[in-house]
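ok so I'm stuck.
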Amino acid sequence: MELWHDRILVLDFGSQYTQLIARRIREAQVYSQILPCTAPLATMLAYRPQGIVLSGGPSSVYDKKAPSVPKELFNQGIPILGICYGMQLVTHLSGGEVVKSKHREYGRADLTIDDKSDLFKDIGKDNSTVVWMSHGDRIERMPPGFRSIAHTANSPIAAMKRDDHKRRIYCLQFHPEVAHTPEGTKILHNFVYEICGCKPTWTMQSYVETAVQQIREQVGKGRVICALSGGVDSSVAAALTHRAIGDQLTCIFVDNGVLRAGERDQVQKTLASQMHLNLRILDRTNQFLAGLKNVIDPERKRKIIGRQFIKNFEEESKKLQGVKYLVQGTLYPDVIESVSFKGPSATIKTHHNVGGLPARMKLKLIEPLRELFKDEVRLLGKELGLPDEIIWRQPFPGPGLAIRVLGSVTNERLAILRAAETIVDQEIRSAGLYREIWQAFAMLLPIRTVGVMGDQRTYENVIAIRAVTSLDGMTADWAKIPNEVLGKMSNRIINEVKGVNRVVYDISSKPPSTIEWE
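replied:
not stuck anymore, here's the structure
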């Protein structure tokens, strides 16, 4: 069990905002860790947390299977912050009364602060601030020993606390973690600093120092391979491992024939020449495209590509003597999803990942990024000296263009899509939107439409453009790209890409849609 300096535990009761709470605390340079609310008390205490946050959630404390925590948690002397459902649970378990609200309170509310001693220190001009409410139950009667410290017109007890020699418990009916609570981050920082006494030691510099030491201890004199895609996650994982063990690391990049234009050359230039990584490039274009011939179903595409990757890594690892470890760019959201209170999500798509390799190849895993969110990975990349073109690279799916060529994957259709994708990328960059957008890309649809070019009838392909904004890819909204930028993309694609006579723009959010179409 790794202990990163001071630590705040966030107990997940199924809130859509649980990750956001953890991110906000990390923004204060204090390490936060999410655990399911079902974790045993002994497990929680083993982490020696400086404080514990109880997240919100969709349940009512009176539901038959309402999530809960052991009452003994409140007697450990550890500061606790209950948010929304967390507040109601504290009330319910501590002898107070929770009732159904006559009117569900959702949205903006004006909070009047009655006590600015600690949690609300330096919050609110004239003792008032704006907060975001989202609850159907309310506190009718506080538990013994608690007192109200803030109220709204609809919630007489919008915040409460018990701060004595036995318990240090603070509760909020509103959500401080969301952007709609303008001073919410400051409230969380007050909890972390003023109440829990944490110090801001969670930095990427300290992360590098600790991770390098751990990798060296784990690897010893063993050999390590890294499945390198050229994306930010695998590149940062490789750079961090390389700093720790140098030439004991060999990176393997597989050209699978469904990469974007110039991608292989960029990886070789940046990661081998500039970063001096020991890089092996395998050209397996024919092998992958032969496996994808006449395959339409996207799940089959993903599985075929996954199997081919496994085959190539198996073959290559046998050529290297003494390989015992495999580096993966697993991120913290991947870890969280596997232990979420709600349980693992239903399989919407099979995600291409080299996670299938260890069991087949009997390699031990090195996952140096498993503590980090995506934005922290970018900060780590900057700390390691990676170039901006790697750090700020937009996510690219493991199956590559195979799932952006909807329908059959052929060299001809890939060429059309590569040309269109290049134009989308160029225009997004030219408009200064590249860092604002989570992903922007083109797709070749399996349909043709009638058009007119040079007074002649055409019957050609359709390109769909997809661009979304997001924090972590788990939810996303379609990007509001200016019309003139979209128009320029469309004109260039139709005029410059042979075989295309129509361009459309996807304005779906996630959920209900996924970011990739396949």
